[in-house]
Amino acid sequence: MKKLILTLIAALGIVTGAQAAEGGLAWDKAPNKTNDVQSLQNGAKLFVNYCLNCHSAAFMRYNRLQDLGITEQQIKDNLLFTTDKVGETMKANIDPKQAKDWFGANPPDLTLVARSRAGHGGTGADYLYTYLRTFYRDDTKATGWNNMAFPAVAMPHVLWELQGDRRPVFEKMEQHGHETEVFKGWEQVSPGTMTPLQYDQAMGDLVGYLQWMAEPAQNQRVRIGVWVLLFLTMAMIFVWRLSASYWKDVK
């Protein structure tokens, strides 16, 4: 039995290693902005303006954005595009049948995407941060775009006007007696409305919002958890001293 378990562990390690090697691009570490209210507000704006056209967030209500310091009137005036009720969920207006014809599949719901996309390369936020920053022109694809983190993705680069047009740069190297191409970086073909630094910061805001949306109470949960641990630590000290005092005369 022990030998079987060791064999399974070794096989899992080989598969994971193969996936990491074949996965190509390493995921970049996403900035943690879930406590930055201004960043989350900007991320919510980017999400509604660029993502909600095709992707829904069917488990998130518009009025929950008030937790980010956005008033109900601001939500109605600036973010309420797919419904006229602030208490409704964030559902895209795209026709599922048309979406399947256009993209080959219905765009997935994004409510929990920041938690569901974690993998061997890092967290779901790391994946999203890398994915949103690695689109490039590819005329062989129906959308005219491809992605380094998700090769042959059906999604077009909806944020290209912000980022501009880039192309990946590869360098030929010899590995294990075979010549291969290794990704070295990016070359800006045409500028976008944002500088590369501004675009990276904007994607950090968007990813931060997606993290927050996946669990709006996560920061409160962490804060409460810290206080609970501190309370239990103090209680353990009192119980320990009380126990020592109670049993000191017992032999």
Give the structure's gist in a few sentences.
The chain is an alpha+beta fold and 251 residues long. It contains 9 helices and 6 strands. It folds into 2 domains: 21-214, Cytochrome c-like domain (Cytochrome Bc1 Complex, Chain D, domain 2), CATH 1.10.760; 220-245.
Give an account of the 3D structure.
The chain is an alpha+beta fold and 251 residues long. The protein is built from 9 helices and 6 strands. It has 2 domains: 194 residues, Cytochrome Bc1 Complex, Chain D, domain 2; 26 residues. The strands form 3 sheets. The protein has a two-stranded antiparallel ribbon with strand order 1-2. α2 packs across α8 and α6 packs antiparallel against α8. The longest helix has 30 residues. The protein is extended and about 85 Å long. The N terminus is likely disordered.
| Rg over alpha carbons | 24 Å
Instruction: Provide the succession of SSEs.
Output: HHEHEHHHEEHEEHH
- The rounded distance between the terminal residues' Cα atoms is 46 Å
Query: How is the CATH topology of the largest domain named?
Result: Cytochrome Bc1 Complex, Chain D, domain 2
What topology does this entry show?
Elements: H1 2-22, H2 37-51, E1 57-61, H3 72-78, E2 89-90, H4 96-103, H5 113-116, H6 124-131, E3 135-137, E4 145-147, H7 160-163, E5 164-175, E6 178-191, H8 196-214, H9 218-247
Helix pairs in contact: 2-8, 6-8
